[in-house]
Write a structure and sequence with these properties.
This protein has about 180 residues and is an all-alpha fold. The protein contains ten helices and no strands.
Length: about 180
């Protein structure tokens, strides 16, 4: 089981008390004993896997769980909803999400901040723009490295052409202002 799956299991265990307030007042042992036998066995298995992790990884999981427990209720609800949606994904899609997350985590803090800003811009876009952005991203993912290189080249050329056009319009407006001033 992957480290991320273990984190998910730890989160699920923590959330079980939050989702059922009556259970939250039971002791952990009472909550465990009230679970169906197959759920008990699943938790035992996950516990064994958790104990096989290096202490540093276990500590990181504990820290993440503590952080989750400190979240305000509305933030925690969003985390719970995202986790629920993640668990409902087909296994292949979950694997892809975890791979993408791992790639994101391996980037530098500056790159992650840049990606977060870009995501906020996408999310803030109107629905039609957002749809277009996401379609473009999908097309980009399907391209070969050579096709991406060609697309970058074309984009640079278009950007330079637009820049030349803007500069030309600016010169024209400046010339028009000067002409008006001289006519007066």
């Amino acid at each position: 089981m992957s480290r991320r799956s273990l984190l998910a299991a730890a989160l699920a265990a923590a959330l079980s008390g939050a989702a059922f307030p009556a259970r939250a007042q039971q002791s952990p042992e009472e909550r465990f004993r009230s679970l169906p036998p197959e759920k008990q066995e699943e938790l035992r298995q996950r516990y064994r896997e958790l104990m096989q992790l290096p202490p540093q990884e276990r500590e990181e999981l504990k820290s993440n769980l503590d952080r989750l427990n400190r979240l305000p209720p509305e933030d925690r609800s969003r985390v719970e909803e995202n986790y629920r949606r993640f668990r409902e994904m087909p296994p292949e899609q979950r694997r892809q999400v975890l791979e993408q997350w791992q790639r994101f985590r391996s980037r530098s803090p500056e790159e992650r901040a840049q990606l977060r800003r870009a995501l906020r811009r996408v999310l803030a876009a109107d629905p039609q723009q957002r749809k277009q952005i996401l379609e473009n991203m999908e097309r980009w993912q399907q391209m070969t490295p050579e096709q991406r290189q060609e697309a970058r080249r074309k984009f640079r050329e278009q950007r330079q052409e637009h820049k030349r056009e803007r500069q030309e319009k600016k010169r024209e407006r400046r010339q028009e202002r000067q002409d008006r001033l001289h006519r007066k």
